[in-house]
Amino acid sequence: MSVVVAMPDVLRVHAMDSVAVALRPLSREAAVTVGGVALAIMEDIPQGHKFATRAHAVGDRVVKYGLPIGVATQDIQVGEHVHVHNVKTALDGEQVYSAEVARGGLATATSASRTWQGYRRPDGRAATRNEIWILPTVGCVGRTAEQVARAAQARHAALIAEGRIDGVHAFNHPHGCSQLGDDLDATRALLAGLAANPNAAGVLLLGLGCESNQLSALLAALPQTARSKVRTLSSQSAGDELVEAATLVDELVELAVSAQREDLPLSALIVGLKCGGSDGLSGLTANPMLGRFSERLAASGGTPILTEIPEIFGAEQALLDRAVDARTFASAAALVNRFKRYYLDQGLPVSENPSPGNIAGGITTLEEKSAGAVQKAGTAPLASVLDYGGQAVEPGLALLEAPGNDAVSSTALAAAGATLLLFTTGRGTPLGFPVPTVKVASNRALALAKPHWIDFDASRVLYEGEQAADAAFLETLVAIASGRRTAAERSDQREMAIWKKGVTL
């Protein structure tokens, strides 16, 4: 049984920090202790927000997580609220990153990995679910795909109830036509990656016929090892497309029912790391918890995938310093600068973040948001860099090209091969994605208010300590990977989104 301890009032993350965080609302004139030093709070501080632990003059760096998160825009006294009214970002465009770093080596687990019950696919990859997916090549047949999926769910309800398959799902999207060049290529790569995901035991690619994203080109983009589980249908060439699609889905179901769960090592997991609706506690509770799991997963030979490139701006050097070799360092640095150039070419600042919800939750600048966000990867060495629509094929931490948008980046993680998404949040969201999406609350209030959204309360680290909370988190992940449905799955929250960067014809 876990030992519950009294939660502290405040937390200073790093000894070098010039601010501390209120773990509960603090009233003006409250007395607190930070680093053994007593100080008085000068104004009301909401939960998750920061206050100064030393005086700042205009232009001084504000430090949290041991990293600069902005500069003071006015004098700030000890105990005063530190937020958007007196701090601004220091981010500005592309930069040259130092390559004079100590390269991180891939670690090796020193003890037996925790096992889970999953499906081993013919190509050797492991799945957490045994599902049939219907992927439209173009938005014109998105609703048709949904009709086919609903009918198949009803037709195979007995098999689903018995656990022989985990469901039939369609993923609608509005793209696939009126696209050109790299924009069309990216859409095609994303859909090919989804079709190859191990959680899809069978896939129906449903086309219209006249779209830019032709079925033949999409099939050619699929990995050779995934093509045997894929069926295709062009709606314009079919007689009754609903009848013909049902026949193909039934054929895929017959193939899928033979799969059986078996004991698999932790190293068989490919896990996507995501945060959305973050607050001031996300970087203190939920994200570090994911980081400790990521370290364990990477050390065992598994693959955690980090993305949301704009949300590492300002904290990227610490990540780059863990690249396993010079080539990985150069690829990651180029990816970050390429993403900054994407902003600058649109006439936008690279620091156009955090969101209104982030700010309300206590996050002041993009540097602060990034410093908290990169903690989802812990200190795992950076082993590979993936383009948007790319597949994770190497063990160890991967960095994936995708924006911060929840639906776009989560879909990209699934297309990269993630069979489980770990999604931290301080504000909450009901949304789920193509693969099981584990919602991790950063604070207890959210976990208690939204149990139909949240799968784990990471604030347990404050009440029970890291060791007990981490052990409970691992058990939750093992249970979900082994078939227990997430809150989003129970609510039938499953969406996808494609990152469209080009012109529309």
From TrEMBL:
InterPro entries reported for this sequence: GD_AH_C, GD_AH_second, SAF, SAF_UxaA/GarD, UxaA_altronate/galactarate_dh
UniProt keywords, alphabetically: Lyase
All copies of domain SAF, residue ranges: 17-88
Enzyme class: lyase
Molecular function GO labels: altronate dehydratase activity
Gene Ontology annotations of biological process type: D-galacturonate catabolic process
TM ranges: none
Enzyme Commission designation: 4.2.1.7
Pfam families for this protein: GD_AH_C, GD_AH_second, SAF
Domain of life: Bacteria
Family: Belongs to the UxaA family.
Descriptive protein name: Altronate dehydratase
Species the sequence originates in: Novosphingobium subterraneum
